[in-house]
Design a protein that fits this description.
Four copies of one chain form a homotetramer.
Chain A lengths: L5 H18 L6 H8 L3 H7 L3 H20 L9 H18 L1 H11 L9 H5 L3 H12 L8 H8 L1 H7 L11 H15 L2
Helix pairs in contact in A: 1-2, 1-4, 1-6, 2-3, 4-6, 5-6, 5-8
The structure holds a DNA duplex.
Chain lengths: ~190, ~190, ~190, ~190
DNA sequence: GATGAATGAGTGTTCATTCAT
DNA sequence: CATGAATGAACACTCATTCAT
C-alpha cells in the first residue's frame, strides 16, 4: 500500500490558494483546482472529505503558518512595546513574502465559511499576542479594553495596510511601517 | 406597453442583499435571488444586464446610501474632531440600522468584483470626509500621512467593531463607541 | 387607426435575411431580428403569427422575387436553347445582385422548415421554365426524363457554382458562365 | 478508474444524426441528444469539448466513412468512365444505406459550422476522385475546367437525386441511375 | 399599430461528488 | 493511493411569446 503523498496534499492546497487569487473564491471549482495541482478531481477526495473541508483546511493551514511566523522570536522578557513591534514587523514580513496566502484569508474571513473554523484550534498559535496584551493591560501600559477592540487598532491595520486593494499609496518601506506602528501604539497605549 | 415597475427592481436588490447575508456571496445564484424576490429569473435581466451588473449595482446602491448617511449633517464650521465624531457616530448608527447592507459590502470588497466599481462615481459621496482630513492635516491637528493610512485607523475600525464576526465582545453602547473613537483619535492626532 | 406599415414589415424581412447571413439560422432569434430591424420584438408579431411564419414568409418572398427575375424577359417564341440560356444568365445576375437572399434560401432549403412551404404557391412563378422544358421534350430537343432530373443538371448547377462555399475557383465571368451552360446543355440535350 | 466506453461515444454520435433527421439542425439541443443517447448531458462533455465539437466531429465521421465507401474498389487501371461510374454507384449505394448520414451532412454543409471543418483532413479520403478527374483531363477525355465545376455536374447531382426533398420523382432504380450518369457524363466529357 | 415589461421553458455548460478500476 | 468516467443538479443566461398600455 502506498503512503499518503504529502506532496500531493500540499500541491492541492497551494493550487487552491493560487486559484483563489487568480479567479476569486466563487469561481473556484474542484476540477479547476485539480487541474492546477495536476491531480485528478477524485484525488482531492482522498485528502479532503469535501470542498468545504478543503477550503477550511487551506485557511487553517495559512493561519497556522502565520501564527508560527508571528511568534517565532517571541521573548516575554522584552518590554510590551518591543514585543508588539516584533509581532507587527513579523506580520509585515510574512505578508510580503506570502501575499497570496494573505489574500486568500481575507476572502475567506469575509465568507460564511468562517463560522466553520474551530477558533480554539488556532487560538493557541496566537497565545503570545494575548499574553502580551494582557500583561500590557495589567502593567497599565495599554488601555483596559477588550482584546478584540485592541486588535482592531493593533493587528487589523497591518492587514489593511498590506492590502493594496484598500491602501493604494502605502509602500511597505521601513519608515512607513514604523510610522503606522506609532499610530497603532498611540491608539492603544494609556 | 407595461411600464417599468421600480418596486420590482428594488425587490431584486433587497433579495440580493438578504440572500448574501444568509448563504454568502459564492452560493448566491440568480435563480435563488429570483425566487426570493418573487420574480422570474428572466425578469432580473430586464433590470440588469447580467449577474455581475446586479451585484455591482447593489454594492454601489449600498455605498451611495452610506455616503449620504455619513455626511447628512456635515458642518465644515465645526472643529475637526467634532466633524470626525459625527462621521463616526453616523457610521455606527447607519450600520446598526442596516447591518445586512454592511455585511454585503464587506463581502463584496473582498471579492474580485471590487475592481469593477468605478470608484470616482462613489468618491463624491465621501468628499466631506476627505476635506475634513485634509484640513486636519493643514491645521497640524492630524498626522501628515496619506489619507488611506489615516482611514485605516479612523474609519475601518468602525466596520470591524460593528462586525460581530470579528468583534464578538463589542457592544454598540454609547460608552464603548466613544471609547473606541478616542483610540482612533489618539492614533491619528498629532 | 394607423395603417400597417409596409416599411416595417420589409425592414423585419431584410433584418431576418441579413442576420441569417451573419450568424446562421440556428442562432437567429426574434429579439435579435427585432433589434436589427429597429422594432420591438412584439411588433414582429403584428406582421407574422410566429417565428416559423416569419422564416417561411421570408423564404417565400425571396423565391417569388427570384421567379420574377428569372422570367422577366421570357419569350416563348425563342428557340428552346435560347430560352434556357436567358433563365441561366438571369439566375446568375440575380444571385450576384442579391447574394444574401441566395444564402438564406440555401440554408432554408436544407432545414425542416422546407416542408412548410406550399410549393404550388411558388410554382406558378416558375411556369415558364416548366413550359420550356416540356416543349423541349416534345420537340425531341431535350432528353425525355422527369423535370426534376433535368433541373439537377440545368438549374441547381447555377446555385452550386454561385455558392463560394462549394465552388471556390468559379468566377462569374461571362466566359465561365457560358462554359458551364454548355456543360448543362450537353447533359440534357438529346 | 472506469475505462472509456466507446459504445457511449458512438451512441452520442448516432443520437445526434438521428435527431437532426427528425427535428432539424436548429432545434437540436444537447439535452435532447443526451436523452436520445440515454446518457446524461454532462456525459457528452466527457467525449466532446462542446456542442460545436460534437456537431463538427459527427460530420467529419460521416464524411470519412463516405470517402472510404466511395473509393473502396478504386482501380486506377480502369478507363476513366468506368472509374467514374464506380464512384457514382458507390455513392448511390452508400447514400441509400445511410440516408440519415446523408441528410445530416446536407444540413451541415449549409450551416455556418461548415467553416470549422479542416478540409485538408478530409480531402485525402477523396484523392482517388481527384486523380481520376485529373487524368481524364490529361487524356483529353474530360473537359479542361476546374475540378469543382466538374464536380457540380458529376458528383453533386447524385446528392440532389438521392435527396427526396429535391427530387420527388427520382427512384433509385438501376435504369434511372444509369440514365442520370449518362447525363453527367455528357456534361463533362469532351 | 406599436411597444417594453414579463415570464416559463429552455439553452449550453459546469458543478461537486461517486464509482469502478 | 490514485484516477478518468459518469452523472443529477445546478449554473448564468436567452428563448419565443403574451400582456397591458
Amino acid at each position: 500500500m502506498r503512503h499518503r503523498d504529502d506532496n500531493k496534499k500540499e500541491a492541492i492546497i497551494e493550487a487552491t490558494i493560487h486559484l483563489v487569487n487568480e479567479i476569486g473564491f466563487a469561481s473556484c471549482s474542484i476540477s479547476k483546482i485539480a487541474k492546477r495541482a495536476r491531480v485528478s478531481p477524485a484525488t482531492i477526495y482522498v485528502y479532503f472529505t469535501n470542498k468545504e473541508d478543503l477550503i477550511v483546511s487551506t485557511y487553517v493551514e495559512i493561519k497556522k503558518s502565520m501564527g508560527v511566523a508571528l511568534t517565532k522570536d517571541y521573548d516575554p522578557s522584552l518590554p510590551i512595546r518591543d514585543r508588539l513591534w516584533r509581532f507587527w514587523t513579523n506580520t509585515f514580513t510574512h505578508i510580503s513574502r506570502y501575499p497570496q496566502h494573505f489574500f486568500y484569508s481575507e476572502q475567506f474571513s469575509n465568507s460564511p465559511f468562517t463560522s466553520l473554523v474551530k477558533s480554539e484550534e488556532l487560538d493557541t498559535y496566537f497565545d503570545p499576542l494575548h499574553s502580551t496584551v494582557r500583561s500590557g493591560i495589567e502593567q497599565k501600559i495599554i488601555k483596559d479594553v477588550p482584546h478584540d477592540v485592541l486588535a482592531v487598532f493593533m493587528f487589523y491595520p497591518i492587514l489593511l495596510l498590506a492590502n493594496h486593494k484598500f491602501c493604494t499609496t502605502f509602500e511597505s518601506s521601513d519608515d512607513q511601517i514604523r510610522l503606522a506602528f506609532d499610530m497603532a501604539w498611540d491608539a492603544i497605549r494609556l
